[in-house]
Amino acid sequence: MGHILAIDQGTTSSRAILFDETFGIVAKAQEEFTQHYPASGWVEHDVSDLWSTTAGTCREVIERASVPVSDIAAIGITNQRETVVVWEKATGRPIHKAIVWQDRRTFEMTDRLKAEGHEPMVTERTGLLLDPYFSATKLAWILDNVDGARQKAEAGELLFGTVDCYLIWKLTGGASHVTDATNACRTMLYDIRKGRWSTTICDLLGIPESMLPEVRDSATEFGVTRSDLFGREIPILGVAGDQQAATVGQACFKPGMLKSTYGTGCFALLNTGEEPVFSQNRLLTTIAYQFDGKPTYALEGSIFIAGAVVQWLRDGLKIIRDAKETQPMAERSDTSQDVILVPAFTGLGAPYWNAECRGAIFGLTRNSGPEEFARAALESVGYQTRDLLEAMQADWSKGEAQTLRVDGGMSASDWAMQFLSDIIGAPVDRPEVLETTALGAAWLAGMKAGVYPDQDGFAEGWALDKRFEPRMDEDTRQAKYDGWRRAIRATLATVES
Ligand SMILES: Nc1ncnc2c1ncn2[C@@H]1O[C@H](COP(=O)(O)OP(=O)(O)O)[C@@H](O)[C@H]1O
Ligand SMILES: O=P(O)(O)OC[C@H](O)CO
């Protein structure tokens, strides 16, 4: 009974990874699914894709691992956050496609709520800002726009869930309608201090509380899988949103510990301990994990474009075929040119939160070519991270230049990680296990199952692959960062009247 199955249901793909009792990866499977863009700024997923790729990758891993199912002690789930699913309680049928966290369709709704002065109340309860990013206005949109949805919701016939919640419902054959605190706190409906749904916000948006799931700890019993799915019932014992699972996987258990995950976007979380810290610099307050009913809080900075800027070099500009090519190109680039790319392709996230501005490039000369674009793309991720860390340090006086633990696909780039260390002026630590998100979910479930060590034991097992130390001199660092700040101001000025 020493194996743990981690499900990582992400924005572009679903993955399943089977870990053994020493956190070794026994088998993994990954399946991408179609992104739907029905209108400008809208992003949807077919709910049946989320389920079929999850169930399919789990089955594939179990087959490949040649480990008896009876040897899988538990399942841990981690997931793309904020994305909204609404389904019928009686049939399990979704009433609309999943509206994805990136979807901006409720921009006018959040603007109106801001104009009506609701933002301080929302922030005080949820730790979030009034932005379309979060689940609440997307759920309200479905209730407003799907025929008869609001009446059905009021009659108790519809259920809402973030992706973890929907997957648990499916895995348990409709027996459990539950989520964990790290997912609940991203809905903009959850009071992070009181630890319950906020009646005030539900009333404001016309959302019946009866459709919301029960909120549990991150490592607890969430139900057991239907026996016909994998050949036997398997308990689900761990759940966390993917960025919180990465925080756990990086063993950032002490206040002051900081991780940053570089996938499509970048999400930096700073553990601030048992009391929530409310940002003066437009960062989010979030629950990092919750054990025994006690939340541990974090400050979060969310950047929407990180690895995606490298994808743009590949798919948009077509100047690379593979993300790895950016490293030798950046090394060959002409350092006398200071080309700055602001990748505001979908607006800017923290700490600017400007949904309207778009990307810009500065400092081009006749000699600027693919190498300089590649370098500017990698550097943009370092600059954006420094913006977040500056805001975190301003918000959290105990914070000084900490070590930053990194993970996610883009952290594989030594060049990008060295520049990151140079521009933040602090060490950057990359762990041996880069599947940090899945590892976090596995640890939550395995710890609850008694397979894995407690927090301290797990933290001791965290192993370094490579440390990047700052090499840039202070004057260059400051001059380059000042250039970035000017570029940001100029970009924002394009949409400010
Ligand atoms: N060697 C590399 N150099 C730069 N970027 C990379 C490299 N490898 C992967 N990436 C970027 O990392 C991202 C993939 O990371 P991943 O953690 O799988 O993301 P997600 O979970 O958001 O899909 C892609 O956007 C890709 O462009
Ligand atoms: O699926 P990812 O890795 O892009 O993560 C998405 C985040 O959870 C959004 O908040």
Automatic annotation (TrEMBL):
Inhibited by fructose 1,6-bisphosphate (FBP). ATP binds at residues 11-13, 264, 307, 311, 409. CDD domains: FGGY_EcGK_like. Pathway: Polyol metabolism; glycerol degradation via glycerol kinase pathway; sn-glycerol 3-phosphate from glycerol: step 1/1. Keywords: ATP-binding, Glycerol metabolism, Kinase, Nucleotide-binding, Transferase. Residues 259-448 form the Carbohydrate kinase FGGY C-terminal domain. One of its GO terms (cellular component) is cytosol. It comes from the Bacteria. Coiled coil: none annotated. GO terms for biological process: glycerol catabolic process; glycerol-3-phosphate metabolic process. Belongs to the FGGY kinase family. Key enzyme in the regulation of glycerol uptake and metabolism. Catalyzes the phosphorylation of glycerol to yield sn-glycerol 3-phosphate. This is Glycerol kinase. It comes from Tranquillimonas rosea.
